[in-house]
Amino acid sequence: MKRIGILTGGGDAPGLNAVIRAAVKTAINEYKCEVFGIRNGYDGFLEEDGIVPLGMNEVRGILPRGGTILGAANRGNPYARKIIRDGQEVTIDVSDEIVKGMKRLNMDALLVLGGDGTLHSAHELYQKGVPIIGVPKTIDNDIGGTEVTFGFDTALNIATEALDRLHTTAESHHRAMVLELMGRDAGFIALQAGVSGGADVILIPEIPFKFESTMKKIRARAEKGSKFSILAVSEGAKPQGGGQVFSRKGDEMYVPRLGGIGQVVAEYIESQGFESRVTVLGHIQRGGTPTAFDRMLATRYGAAAVRLAARGGFDRMVAQRCGEITDLPLEEATAIPKRVQLDGDAVITARNIGISFGDE
């Protein structure tokens, strides 16, 4: 192994730079290998200045930095790239250009840091001959085959701190405070932050809720003298018999953008005679300094990805299982998205301590 590439696809997540740093250091120290960064996801193969050398100087000081020094393109699917042609927006397949770029640069491996969409594309590129290694990244923690993705712990800590802060103002003004959190179709952030932050109601995509059941909890608290309530609401939560709420509709290129369920819940609470406010935490969950856990996990993933490439373990993804770093086929990792287990101890524990999921 003489030369490898690294790219960061999808949305940004805390810990991306830690993976890059670990991969570069491992490649240089252990394998005397050249490393190149591909800017802006797969798009870097198509841009004039899209490939940059990565050495010790380039990764110095980036361990605690959020974001990614390589840039990302969360709509960078090489099989469906949107461009303007003859004044019209069209979708084209540029996967063959990626393959040519790898061959032109004589790269022995390509480390792809991304979520389910990016890793799906990575598996398809492997089938075209690109030597791919996947690294699981997403704050949503919804990638199968691994106990945890880097970025999740940082987002969880930020969400928990937000709930802590909302408690004081909620109690002062006797309000129901709704915090809308990211997570797409997985409720891990809302569930774990809700338990850790003392939420009274947690609404997640895996458990469709009833508005009246949610109000039942708020009323019960008020009757006992607690005139405020805290609700942790995942952006993908939906009422029974209803659908998810989107802030933007999808099209043939872009998936719909979730957002707005927190406002819907808050308005219903208001209609029942309880003052309510909604906070949408949004991209704050993605930004800033990664936690020590995410730095450590990302570093372990980065080093393990290079070791996996060195032994030719392509079309595989590094993962954590039982606390140890291992690897598994990309196809297996992306086959079934991970979701909150309704019979798991986290949900059971939340119910045991009196948290409502709005379903009973």
The counted number of beta strands is: 15
CA-to-CA gap between the ends?
Answer: 57 Å
Large-scale geometry? elongated
Which band does the percent of strand residues land in?
A: 15-25%
Kindly list the characteristics that best describe this protein.
360 residues, alpha/beta, Rossmann fold, seven-stranded mixed β-sheet, four-stranded parallel β-sheet, 11 helices, 15 strands
Description:
- The structure is a single chain.
- The chain contains eleven helices and 15 strands.
- With 360 residues, it is an alpha/beta fold.
- The chain folds into two domains: 3-150 and 290-321, Rossmann fold; 156-286 and 341-352, 3-Layer(aba) Sandwich (Rossmann fold).
- 51% of the residues are buried.
Compact overview of the structure:
With 360 residues, the protein is of the alpha/beta class. The protein contains 11 helices and 15 strands.
Secondary structure layout:
Blueprint: E1 3-8, H1 16-31, E2 34-38, E3 51-53, H2 56-59, E4 81-85, E5 88-92, H3 95-104, E6 109-114, H4 116-126, E7 132-136, H5 152-173, E8 176-181, H6 188-196, E9 201-203, H7 211-223, E10 229-234, E11 246-248, E12 257-258, H8 261-271, E13 276-280, H9 292-310, E14 316-321, E15 324-329, H10 330-335, H11 345-352
Parallel strand pairs: 1-2, 1-6, 6-7, 7-14, 8-10, 8-13, 9-10
Antiparallel strand pairs: 2-3, 4-5, 11-12, 14-15
Helix pairs in contact: 1-9, 5-6
